[in-house]
Every structure is written in C-alpha cells, then in structure tokens.
C-alpha cells in the first residue's frame, strides 16, 4: 500500500483546536506584555514545576540558548566530555562558549554515553560531563555522578528528549548540576520554539535569569555578558494549552510504540531498542537498527519508505564527530567511537506522534517486512 498521498513524517506536533488558543491571545493583547517574563511566562514555569516534579525552572526561547547559558551559569571552561551521538546543538553549545568537546563512545543497548568509558577521556583540562538522555531513555545517572564526584566535575544533562521521563526516585531531570530541555515543535511537549533549564536552587535560577536577559540586574546594572534567551508570552501561552493535552498524547505515543514492537518483532535484521518501560519512557522517538543481515541496507530501506510517502530519519547520522568543525579532534576519530559509528550507520527513526493512525503504523511495518 502506498502512502504517498498522506506523507507521514517522523514527528508532527499535536495541535489542539485553534479556538482553544484564542482566549490566551486575547489576554496577551489585553495586558500588552508580549515578552520579558510576563504573566503566562510565570504561570508556565509554575505549572511545569508541578508537572515535572522539580522546584525551579527557567524558561528559554529555545533549547540551544538554554544549553549555552547552562554552561555559562556553571562557569565551565577547558574540556567537556560528551557524546558524538546527538543533535549538533549539544556540542555547538560548547564551541559557542570556547570549550573543547571531547567525544566518548556510547552504550550499545541505550546509545547513551557509556559511563564505563568516561574515565579514560578525562584529562587535567576536563571540567564537566555533558551526557544526553538519547531518545528520552535515561542515562546511567548514578555511575556518571559517581565519576563526577570523585573527579570534581560538573554534570550538565542535555535532556532535550526527556520531558516527563522518570526513574525510581522521580524526575530524571533532578540529576546532575543542571538539566536542559527543548520545547521545539518536534518534541513531546512543545511551545512552538522553546526550552528550559532545571535549576537546583533559587540562587542558580537567579543567575540563569540574569544571563538569559543580557546579564541585566536592574536599569543601571549589568553583571555578565548574557544573551537574549527569554521565552515570549505567545510561546508560554501555547505551552500552557499543550499541557492540558499532554497525558492523552503520551498515552497515544505509548500505544504506537507497542504497535511497532508487535509488528516488527519477528523481522530478522531489524532491532528495536529496549523499551525503557512505562513512567520511565516518554516514547519521544521510535528508532530501529537495520542490522547487517537485513537483506537491504539502512539507506535503501530509507529510500523505499520515502518513495511510499514515509519520511523516516537517520537520526543521528552523520555523527557530530564527523562534521568539519569536529572531525580533526583526536577524540572524534571513528576508531575511538566504534559503537556510535556503527549505530549511526544502522539507525532509522520511524514516525511516531499522537495523530498517527494504527493502520498507518501497520502499513509502515508491513512495508519493512516486505523487504526481508
């Protein structure tokens, strides 16, 4: 069955009826405050703290600005150990701050930074570790923190994929010195564009708020070379509306994940990453690995899906370490990153979003099975 007419993409934002958003717009027009931390901005911060189970959160215009500011807030310098298997914003935030990224390999089961390999990458210039909760699956936070404590390093989690993810103790966002979220339109929870930093206390939140507003303290005082990272009232209002629909969206994502697993489980050469489990996972993505013994290559399967109107994504390919601004780093050499290099050649993220129909999931799975 061809799906060319429908064009199914990897992810699409769930958009509630437009009339739900109109009351928010009317309030913005009425109070005439469009940005600079207005009432919707404060309301969204409070409601996100309640929903996520955290004490302090600072909203941003996007997740990249939040990453850049998190590094500035902790005064990170020198070298930072991070993963090559991520979106480029992770390591770009380091370059923006004049920090040298040091890439370390990933775990073959989770594709998160392999805690067992971090120690070997630490040098006298290392000041922090920046792991990524890849696809929303939690990192080995205990092992990473043990290394950081023993070596006196900071930990900043790129939690762009991990909205609402929990472990046995509560929100995964409570780990590390700071955790950074993305609210981009492709994320589980979105504000069109947006992001946030989870802050451990009021003092660091105050510093972060100053840094995202040019370093301004008051009309006469600027204390740091900050940036304009503030979230607008429009984006905050959209986030408040999205929160009302989030539980249903997450439940539907879980159903789609289960349908994929059920339909793909007997296809030789197609491997699904292990399900992190209810509560732990947010089902942000559905990656498969096209193994060498599948009859056609990953790229061939990608093209067949595309020809049938299914726009999967080789996410993450290429590796960050393969891009020109990174590839000359000693830590970026493929022989140092065998697991990440292998995963990047095999990975394919299939469409997953609340409005994806069960019949469409089954058709996608049937098309993959037809190639085996």
Structure in words:
This is dTDP-4-amino-4,6-dideoxygalactose transaminase. The modification N6-(pyridoxal phosphate)lysine is found at residue 187. GO terms for molecular function: pyridoxal phosphate binding; transaminase activity. Belongs to the DegT/DnrJ/EryC1 family. The active site is at residue 187. This protein is an alpha/beta fold. The chain folds into two domains: 8-13 and 246-369, Alpha-Beta Complex (Aspartate Aminotransferase, domain 1), CATH 3.90.1150.10; 18-243, 3-Layer(aba) Sandwich (Aspartate Aminotransferase, domain 2). The protein has twelve helices and 16 strands. The protein has a seven-stranded mixed sheet, with helices on both faces. Strands 13-14-16 form a three-stranded antiparallel sheet. The chain has a two-stranded parallel ribbon with strand order 1-15. The protein is globular, with a radius of gyration of 21 Å. 44% of the residues are buried. The mean pLDDT is 96.
Beta-strand percentage range: 15-25%
Which structural category do the helix and sheet elements fall into? Answer: alpha/beta
The tally of structural domains comes to 2
Radius of gyration: 21 Å
Pfam families: DegT_DnrJ_EryC1
InterPro entries: DegT/StrS_aminotransferase, PyrdxlP-dep_Trfase, PyrdxlP-dep_Trfase_major
Family: Belongs to the DegT/DnrJ/EryC1 family.
Modified residues (N6-(pyridoxal phosphate)lysine): 187
């Amino acid at each position: 069955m061809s799906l060319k007419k429908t064009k199914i993409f990897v992810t699409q934002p769930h958009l509630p009826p437009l009339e739900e958003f109109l009351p928010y717009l009317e309030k913005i027009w009425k109070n005439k405050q469009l940005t600079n931390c207005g009432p919707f901005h404060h309301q969204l911060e409070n409601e996100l703290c309640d929903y996520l189970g955290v004490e302090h959160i600072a909203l941003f215009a996007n997740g990249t600005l939040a990453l850049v500011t998190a590094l500035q807030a902790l005064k990170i310098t020198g070298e930072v150990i991070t993963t090559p298997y991520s979106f480029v914003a992770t390591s770009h935030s380091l370059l923006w701050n004049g920090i040298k990224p040091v890439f370390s390999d990933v775990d073959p089961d989770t594709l998160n930074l392999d805690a067992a390999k971090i120690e070997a990458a630490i040098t006298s210039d290392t000041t922090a570790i920046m792991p990524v909760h890849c696809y929303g699956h939690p990192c080995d936070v205990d092992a990473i923190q043990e290394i950081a404590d023993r070596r006196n390093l900071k930990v900043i989690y790129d939690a762009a994929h991990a909205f609402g993810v929990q472990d046995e103790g509560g929100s995964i966002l409570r780990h590390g010195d700071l955790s950074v979220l993305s609210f981009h339109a492709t994320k589980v929870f979105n504000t069109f564009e947006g992001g946030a930093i989870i802050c451990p206390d009021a003092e660091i939140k105050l510093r972060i708020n100053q840094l995202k507003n040019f370093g301004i303290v008051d009309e006469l005082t600027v204390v740091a070379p900050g940036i304009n990272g503030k979230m607008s009232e429009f984006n905050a209002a959209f986030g408040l509306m999205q929160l009302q629909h989030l539980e249903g969206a997450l439940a539907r994502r879980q159903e789609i994940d289960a349908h994929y697993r059920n339909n793909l489980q007997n296809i030789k050469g197609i491997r699904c990453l292990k399900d992190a489990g209810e509560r732990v996972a947010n089902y942000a993505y559905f990656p498969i690995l096209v193994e060498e013994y599948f009859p056609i290559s990953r790229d061939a399967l990608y093209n067949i899906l595309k020809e049938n109107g299914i726009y999967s994504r080789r996410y993450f390919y290429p590796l960050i370490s393969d891009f020109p601004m990174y590839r000359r780093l000693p830590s970026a050499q493929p022989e140092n990153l065998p697991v990440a290099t292998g995963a990047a050649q095999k990975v394919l993220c299939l469409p997953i979003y609340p409005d994806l129909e069960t019949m469409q999931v089954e058709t996608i799975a049937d098309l993959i099975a037809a190639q085996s």
